[in-house]
Amino acid sequence: MIYNIGSINADFFYHVSHIPMPGETLVASKVERGLGGKGANQSVAMINAGSEVCHLGAVGEDGSWLIDQLRALGVDTTNVIKLLGASGHAIITMEKDGENAITTFGGANHLISTDQVNSWLAPISSSDWLVLQNETSQQSNAANLASLRGAHVVYSAAPFDAEVVAEILPFVDILCVNEIEAAELTSHFKVKNLKEIGVSAILTTLGSRGATYQDFKTGLEIRVEGITVSSVDTTGAGDTFCGYFVALLSQGKDPLEALTFANKAAALKVTKLGTANAIPNLAEVLEFNAR
Ligand code: RIB
Questions:
Q1: Active site positions, annotated
Q2: How many domains does the chain contain in total?
């Protein structure tokens, strides 16, 4: 079983000609709302990749529609709680070519308590996986508990905060970063190679140039090249990549096969508008694979 203590956001997409400069006011040509949050997106990606996922997360009093959408996309929401106050949300400013700038507000995602995490993770054991991103409270506690039970812990260091990574790192088996975050980590830890920061394995996404996976325990280093597609929306591509990769690894797939499929899933995602609802399912990825 994959447990995901993951953020759930209302994503508001503002379609604009360009990302505004400081002090500039822009008129959006269109506004849309949908389910997002790095956690919710990763749960949907893992479900679509054929895994069993238990989403552990929180919404505010306004968040019934978010739970409904998550459930409609096939995620087990039995353990998603509703807290006083507002749900998390994201303002996604989107350029015509699919480039974006995102501002998030944590809301209920940041109100998850230690007791809640202890109760959610009571059944976790060594055959399970715990997936986390930097959009909820209690990340280190959760990672520590899961690690003590021998579960595989995967952490996406996004939105990036080097101090938070440093705190959670001792409990993490696979760290997921993009290349900017990888460079920031190298500088924060004052190392030449990320191998020196002490994590077992790192997945580094390289945007349109593909991704690498390094397993420092086995010495495996693999890379997939980016796939050229006509991009309309890059939001959630990293979540799609990470979700697919972890799901397939947890199913016992070879890392290269998992990386190859995740790369295709992320490439397909950027051809569609939206976040959680735009993550391709396995049949779509298989069809893309066969082309
Ligand atoms: O990675 C994309 C996600 O980042 C969006 O869905 C948004 O909610 C932010 O959390």
A1: 239
A2: 1
Kindly report the CA angle at 138 between 132 and 143, in degrees rounded to 5? 50
Q: Cα separation of 44 and 219, whole Å?
A: 31
Contact 32, 13 (CB under 8 A): yes
158 CA closest ligand 1 atom index: 1
**Cα 52 from chain centre:** 16
The pTM of the full predicted model, rounded to 2 decimals, is 0.97
CA 184 – CA 130 distance, rounded (Å): 24
* Cα separations in angstroms, 153 against 4, 47, 108: 10, 18, 23
Classify residue 239: in a domain, yes or no. yes
3-state secondary structure of 130: strand
Is residue 97 a part of any domain in this protein?
no
Q: Which residue segment(s) compose the domain that 77 sits in? A: 2-8+36-88+105-289
Distance 75 CA to ligand 1 centre (A): 17
Which amino acid residue places its CA nearest to atom 7 of ligand 1? 37
Measured between alpha carbons, how far is 44 from 74 in angstroms, rounded to an integer?
7
Q: What is the pLDDT of residues 8-47, one digit of tens each?
A: 999 999 999 999 999 999 999 999 999 999 999 999 999 9
Whichever domain contains 174, its CATH number is 3.40.1190.20
Q: Is residue 24 part of a domain?
A: no
246 within some domain:
yes
pLDDT digits (tens, 9 = 90+) for 48-85: 999 999 999 999 999 999 999 999 999 999 999 999 99
